[in-house]
Write a structure and sequence with these properties.
This is glucosamine-6-phosphate deaminase. This protein is an alpha/beta fold. Helix content is 29%, strand content 17%. It has one domain: Rossmann fold. Helix 1 crosses helix 2. Bound molecules: fructose -6-phosphate. The site of fructose -6-phosphate (F6R) has 14 residues, from loops.
Length: 232
């Protein structure tokens, strides 16, 4: 079962855990998330002036059809919110490429890389529908990286990042549940009252495809860090 920590400051706690890990293992392999949840953690990591020169990263997901330089791409998000403020090497940043025509080949490439370079710490947010990465309800536990059609709930939740009239992608490439579960340690962060139901189901519901985060119950080293607004 995941370890549950309620914290007044989940960003500081998560950033401290990640920073300590990088100090102990300078070539740490980090699994990273985008969205609102990790922004504060990345800010705190930047402030710590860590040496990222040997750190390697894998991001969870990327929108289909957006280039890395597109302002709405998750690659761009990571550049702006973390990478460009550190000394991470470009060749150590791993991302799914949402522009490829051969998705099978691209997702196989990513899975191979993660097998060769297993993730030490995977940072996760959670969707209001219980998704982790873009594994929407219905995603099986043995799923690996693949193309996913986003649920209407996720499209609605993420519409806040897009201006009116701006085209919002409806598909993404995403690590699967199995890819995430292979990480040695998982830190899931949830902030805000609107995450209460998903967290409750993930922790106390049955471990089923209805709530993909509930599969984390089966991980040996998983921590949920919740802010005081998650009412649990
Ligand atoms: C982002 C990701 C998603 C988000 C989730 C929560 O890379 O994989 O699973 O973590 O949708 O998003 P926020 O943090 O914006 O509430």
């Amino acid at each position: 079962m995941p370890k549950l920590i309620k914290s007044q400051d989940p960003d500081a706690l998560a950033a401290d855990m990640i920073a300590e890990f990088i100090q102990q293992k300078p070539d740490a392999v980090l699994g990273l998330a985008t969205g609102s949840t990790p922004i504060g953690i990345y800010k705190k990591l930047i402030e710590k002036n860590l040496d990222f020169s040997q750190v390697r990263t894998f991001n969870l997901d990327e929108y289909v059809g957006l280039s890395q330089s597109h302002p709405q791409s998750y690659y761009h998000f990571m550049q702006e919110n973390l990478f460009k403020h550190t000394n991470i090497k470009k060749e150590n940043i791993n991302f799914l490429n949402g522009l490829v025509s051969d998705i099978q080949k691209e997702t196989a490439r990513y899975e191979d890389l993660m097998r060769q370079t297993p993730i030490d710490i995977q940072l996760l947010g959670i969707g209001t529908n219980g998704h982790i990465a873009f594994n929407e309800p219905g995603s099986p536990q043995d799923s690996t990286s693949r193309k996913i059609v986003l649920s209407q709930q996720t499209i609605k939740d993420n519409s806040r990042f897009f201006s009116p009239g701006e085209k919002q992608p409806e598909e993404a490439l995403s690590m699967g549940i199995q890819s995430i579960m292979a990480a040695k340690q998982i830190i899931l962060i949830a902030k805000g009252q609107n995450k209460t139901k998903a967290i409750h189901t993930a922790l106390y519901g049955p471990s089923t495809t209805d709530c993909p985060a509930s599969f984390l119950q089966n991980h040996r080293n998983c921590i949920f860090i919740l802010d005081p607004h998650v009412d649990i």
